[in-house]
Design goal:
6 helices; 18% strand; single chain; alpha+beta; globular
């Protein structure tokens, strides 16, 4: 049995511009855990606006962005829409990859269905 990969590098199309004008495009994201998806449900910002769940989850699973090692919801909020959609799709892809690695004999249709049924709310991701 192979080693389960839980961290992945990514490059944002536009990138995050910090308060000093520095551009951060390359980052590392880890696979979300159950706690990453469940604990933010208690956050008042998520209760007020369920779409904010994706911001909280991404701030938990992105471990590095450029030279930034502390990724806060404010950093995720400042991403361009294109980058936010790419990041969300990457997270969905990580879930799918983890499922494939943990169930190598699973049918592709099962994995596609499971990878799209997360607690991200009704946010529709691009195919």
């Amino acid at each position: 049995m192979g080693v389960l990969q839980t961290e992945f590098e990514f490059v944002l199309p536009k990138g995050y511009v910090d308060e000093n004008g520095n551009l951060h495009r390359e980052g590392v994201m880890r696979t979300a855990t159950a706690a990453d998806e469940i604990l933010p449900m208690k956050d008042p910002r998520v209760r007020q606006n369920p779409a904010y769940l994706s911001v909280i989850i991404l701030s938990r699973v992105v471990t590095r962005l450029g030279s930034l090692s502390m990724i806060t919801p404010a950093v995720i909020e400042a991403l361009f829409t294109t980058d936010l959609l790419i990041s969300k799709k990457c997270t969905t892809g990580l879930t799918r990859t983890a499922l494939i690695q943990s169930r190598p004999n699973a049918r592709s249709a099962d994995i596609n269905l499971r990878s799209r049924s997360s607690l991200w709310g009704n946010n529709r991701l691009p195919p």
